[in-house]
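Throughout our pipeline, every protein is held as a single compact record rather than as scattered files. Nothing more is needed to write down the fold, since each code stands for a local backbone conformation. The record that follows is passed on verbatim for readers who wish to inspect the format.
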Amino acid sequence: MSLVPLPRLIVEPLVRAALLEDLGLAGDITSGSVIPHDHRSTVVMAARQPGVIAGLDAAELAFSLVDPEIVMRRHLQDGDAVKPGDVIATIEGPSRGLLTAERTALNFLGHLSGIATVTAEIAAAIRGSKAAVACTRKTTPGLRALEKYAVRAGGGMNHRFALHDAVLIKDNHVAISGGVAEAIRRARAGIGHLVKIEVEVDRLDQLREAMETGVDAVLLDNMTPDQLRQAVAIVAGRALTEASGRVTPATAAAIAASGVDLISVGWLTHSAPVLDIGLDFLEAAIATDASPKRIAQVL
């Protein structure tokens, strides 16, 4: 599946808000007072640890919104794997603007690349099975579109984007409704014909009740691989099966081997470590980088 970029209309307001937060009411008073207005520089953006890149559109927008004269030339694309020292992009333009936008650009790129990287780790762990890795709604407020895009860049799939996308009946809904079947019936009576219904279960008897009532998908929460295998047999292809809970790169393969269709992982977006990506002035990068040939090859 090809990676479709997010429209600029979605990304730009998020980047603009981040820049405004950083600039405040007075702008970058350090760069404005220290750097001559006509000074220009070329910088290289390079990976400092292995991972998968995501967020280049946001990074480029950070620079161009600060100063339209800044030009970013990409040497890699979102979804590409990197090694330490790999040059991701070269950026040229007024030095004040480069320094003003640097942190915002790297914040977006490092955070989103971190999400793509851990997603790729889970995707690699379950390769060969029919299962796909999916994210959840456990995202940073305001950044959901970007974080879910980063999951796709890492080879994962998106779950529902928001509460209006699909019905997901969870344990609290079931408890208040008085049971799985009643919750499903109420949901079906209150939605349109194109909206899918998924119900969360943590016991096989709940699963049987859900299948007797009829649903589009079942979320099998915190089940062991053996329980998941039993659940897949009960469903027998009548609904999509999604496993969640206790998923790590070490446990993902056993979960996938149960035959589930999806494995949803909340920590992909709420706890992924930032991928270390640096921005260095060209002369300094050539002098200090362990692989200067990589820099020379892209200039």
Remarks:
- The chain has 13 helices and twelve strands.
- The first helix runs from residue 8 to 23.
- The mean pLDDT is 94.
- The two ends are 31 Å apart (CA to CA).
